[in-house]
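Help! Submission page says 'invalid entity' but I think these are all valid:
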Amino acid sequence: MVFDYAARIARVTAAMGRSGVDTLLLSVGSDMPWLLGYEAMDLERVTMAVVRPDSRPTLVVPRLEAPRVDDRGEIFDVVAWDELEDPIGIIVDLVGAGSALAVGDRTWSMFTLALQARLGGRTWESAGPIMAEMRMVKEAEELDRLRAVGASADRVAERLAGYLFGGKTERRVAADIAAMLVEEGHDSAWDVIVASGPNGASPHHEPGDRVIQIGDPVVCDFGGTMDGYISDTTRNFVVGEPAAEYVAMFAVLREAQEAGVRAATVGTPCQDVDRTTRKVIQDAGYGEYFVHRTGHGIGLEVHESPYIVEGNELPLAAGMVFSVEPGIYVPGQFGMRIEDIVIATDAGPERCNNSPHEFVSVR
Ligand code: ZN
Ligand code: ZN
Ligand code: ZN
């Protein structure tokens, strides 16, 4: 086993003790695979891990999915429920007398509400803070996987410099980028963003039928999963020559992104990284066009803690991994964003994305 799940369980149960949590209930999402190495199917048949400091974790899983669970008898017990059985009753029994219960953030409300109806007199809270604290600082193997998946995405960025954009629809370009990610080693791509011309002003634009024209700036935000860990990078392309206004704004964006990466040192509060990128863009007079936070943590999920946003005073620690992705979006005209994944290390910020940051003129 590559990851030491027993050590992770020990850390989580220690954190539960510090937070006064008697029982942790995890279901779909990335908390359970991080903790136990098994990912619940995102379906209406409940899968739930019941974690208590006084016993081994128990994974309650539908009988038909039990064969998917690797035998990890030394780490957790498995209880398979039959098709006509009442899984909520099994979970209620496993919770026992514990009064302070914490539920994973992604748990379907139908499961949480069914448990609450049968477990009166308990207190309920989100397991999010405990799990974020545990998952935010990556282990050495996780960092290696994030570096590798970032390098794979960089190879796609470099291939795009020679790719023909003009005359293709955004949807076609997005499909080609997704295919390139797999060719370059990803297991799968997430929904790639290709936003051309005025569509670039929408940060999460969904690629559509717009045909890319000569003179269009194109924002490409792409990534996916490799060995369970996720990439996320944004690069900018211009078909032919850009307008002078675009070039001037891009110089500001480039400076803002560089300043943000340099600011991401161990001990710096997350919000200071956001303030650093924002100040460069505001000072240039484009503040109203930077409409989102500077970044988000990344790992098993594309967006996770720590969030690089005003109000987050959490100091960066060595091993935290997050995006630095300021953007400038001019409604009706164009947009631009530069995004790298960065690791905070004791030797300073380390980029997982090192493809050229300048916009690239393409055909
Ligand atoms: Zn985004
Ligand atoms: Zn991102
Ligand atoms: Zn992105």
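Support: the input was valid. A stray whitespace character was the problem, and the output above is from the cleaned input. The longest helix spans residues 140-160.
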